[in-house]
C-alpha cells in the first residue's frame, strides 16, 4: 500500500531523497533550489505559492516526491490560463484554489514526479488530488515520458510552444547558419557585425569566480528587466539568489557583457 503525505515545507523531507533519483541535468529540481525559494519567502502563502509537496511511501521507504503548490492566482507560471479562469468566473464556478506541480517561476521542461527506479505513481497522485478542495490539478513543463504517464490516468494534455536552441553537432558557427533560411542568416550576420563594432566583450565566471559584487550586479539586471516589462522587480528575491550562490555554487555560470 502506498501512503501519501503532504509536506507543508520541503524541510519535512530528506534532501538525499530528492537528489538520489534526479537526472544529472535536472538542476532546477534540486532540493537546494526549492528550499531557497521557501526560506527566502518566494514560495509561501503570502505570495500565493503555498507548498503542498507530496511524499509517496510504502512503510518506511520513500518511493516518490512531487513539488506541489496550492495557488490562488496564475502568476509566475508562464503557462497562461487566464482565459480558463475567466470562463470559470463567467459560469459562476471558482477556478481557484488550484494545485500546480511545477518548479516555480521556471518554464523549463524536466521531471516533476521523481521516483525510485522511475516507478509510475501518477494514479495514486490523481486519486489524492481528486479529494482536495481544489478546482483543478496541473503538472507543468513535463517531459514527453511523464506526459504520457499522466495521460494514461485520464489527464488531459495541453501543448504549448517554446523557442529552444539545440546544438546539432555544429563544429562552426557557419554550420549552424547553414541550417537557417537565407533571410535569417543575413539578419544574424548583420547583428553580429553590429555587436563586433560596439566593442562589447563577454566574460564568463563560474562557481567561486562569481564575487558578491558580480552577483549583486546580476540581481540588479534581473530586477530592472522585470521592472521595465512587468512593473515589478521579479518573483525571485535577493534571499533566494544569495542562498543558491552558497548552496549551488558549482552549478552557476554567469556571463557578463562589458
Please, could you describe this protein's structure?
With about 260 residues, the protein is of the alpha+beta class. The chain has three domains: about 5-150, Aminopeptidase (3-Layer(aba) Sandwich); about 170-200; about 200-258, no CATH class. Helices cover about 35% and strands about 15% of the residues. It contains nine helices and ten strands. It has helices at about 15-20, 30-40, 80-90, 120-130, 145-150, 175, 180-195, 210-230, 240-245, and strands at about 5, 50, 55-60, 60-65, 70, 100, 115, 135-140, 200-205, 255. The strands form three sheets. The protein has a four-stranded antiparallel beta sheet with strand order 1-3-4-7, with helices on one face. β3 and β4 (about 60-65) form a beta hairpin. α2 runs antiparallel to α9 (about 240-245). The protein is globular.
Amino acid at each position: 500500500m502506498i501512503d501519501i503525505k503532504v509536506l507543508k515545507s520541503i524541510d519535512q523531507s530528506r534532501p538525499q531523497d530528492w537528489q538520489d533519483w534526479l537526472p544529472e541535468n535536472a538542476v532546477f529540481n534540486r532540493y537546494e533550489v526549492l528550499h531557497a525559494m521557501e526560506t527566502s519567502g518566494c514560495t509561501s502563502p503570502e505570495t500565493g505559492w503555498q507548498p503542498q509537496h507530496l511524499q509517496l511511501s510504502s512503510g518506511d521507504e520513500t518511493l516518490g516526491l512531487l513539488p506541489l503548490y496550492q495557488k490562488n492566482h496564475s502568476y509566475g507560471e508562464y503557462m497562461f490560463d487566464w482565459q480558463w479562469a475567466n470562463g470559470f468566473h463567467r459560469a459562476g464556478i471558482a477556478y481557484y484554489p488550484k494545485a500546480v506541480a511545477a518548479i516555480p517561476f521556471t518554464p523549463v521542461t524536466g521531471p516533476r514526479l521523481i521516483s525510485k527506479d522511475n516507478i509510475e505513481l501518477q494514479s495514486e497522485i490523481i486519486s489524492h488530488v481528486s479529494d482536495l478542495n481544489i478546482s483543478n490539478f496541473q503538472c507543468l513543463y513535463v517531459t514527453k515520458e511523464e506526459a504520457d504517464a499522466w495521460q494514461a490516468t485520464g489527464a488531459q494534455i495541453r501543448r504549448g510552444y517554446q523557442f529552444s536552441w539545440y546544438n546539432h553537432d555544429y563544429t562552426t558557427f557557419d554550420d549552424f547558419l547553414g541550417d537557417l533560411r537565407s533571410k535569417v542568416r543575413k539578419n544574424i550576420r548583420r547583428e553580429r557585425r553590429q555587436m563586433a563594432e560596439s566593442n562589447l566583450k563577454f566574460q564568463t565566471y563560474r562557481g567561486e569566480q562569481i564575487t558578491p559584487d558580480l552577483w549583486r550586479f546580476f540581481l540588479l539586471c534581473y530586477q530592472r528587466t522585470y521592472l521595465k516589462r512587468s512593473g515589478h522587480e521579479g518573483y525571485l528575491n535577493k534571499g533566494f539568489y544569495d542562498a543558491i550562490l552558497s548552496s549551488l555554487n558549482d552549478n552557476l555560470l554567469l556571463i557578463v557583457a562589458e
